[in-house]
């Protein structure tokens, strides 16, 4: 599962340029019995299997011997939900050991003794932690200086995790009768930046209002929202002559 991921695209380039360093540890290689068993039936009975502690301990210790200052992170739906702030803090870590369970999960004693952090990529159930680990790796890798092209890196961070992005357009100018907003063709970069901030804010309000709750807005951002508010008020005012409904007089 990991081989293609580490070879392709921007992650592949970052590995080649040694901007990031990745290794995969197969827990089966650390099994202690002759059949190289990594799972067993749960104490107390019930369905499903549990990952045996010895192979996991061996794999984690082996990873630690290569990268002693790494943080050990278990992928589990019980964990704190991963977000952009968590990605930023992981990007500052010396290294990450991402522990991927299968079946019902890992023996609790591994969690207690080896795991620094439990993380979930969202409230849904996967069959293993591997895809979740790739999500973490991708979001963290793109924050490592030099991994993204110079064009991308600086600009992207102003919005990421804070606001929904403004709309994006490329050629053709008219697609199936639908034209690109003319401001984007004006060549006026001050106006274009203003439009993008306005669209970013208003799209956040419409699509992800939760992102605006409790957020400290700049004077410019507040002015944009006030302008929209005034526009909406004027539309309502123009209706007032025939407004006798229960909301009449609403501020
Ligand atoms: N898992 N975010 C590991 C997840 C999951 C998630 C299911 C991980 C089962 C054993 N991991 N096991 N959501 O659903 O990280």
Can you give keywords for this protein?
single chain; 251 residues; alpha/beta; three-stranded parallel β-sheet; 9 helices; 7 strands; binds ligand 4HQ
Based on helices, strands and strand pairing, what is the structural class? alpha/beta
Biggest pleated sheet: 3 strands, parallel
- Unreliable residue runs: none
- State the separation between the terminal residues, measured CA to CA: 57 Å
Number of helices: 9
How is this structure best described in words?
- The chain has 251 residues and is of the alpha/beta class.
- It has helices at 2-7, 9-16, 53-66, 84-91, 108-114, 130-141, 150-156, 189-207, 219-237, and strands at residues 39-40, 50-51, 71-81, 96-99, 117-120, 174-175, 178-179.
- The radius of gyration is 25 Å and the shape is elongated.
- The mean pLDDT is 94.
- Bound molecules: ligand 4HQ.
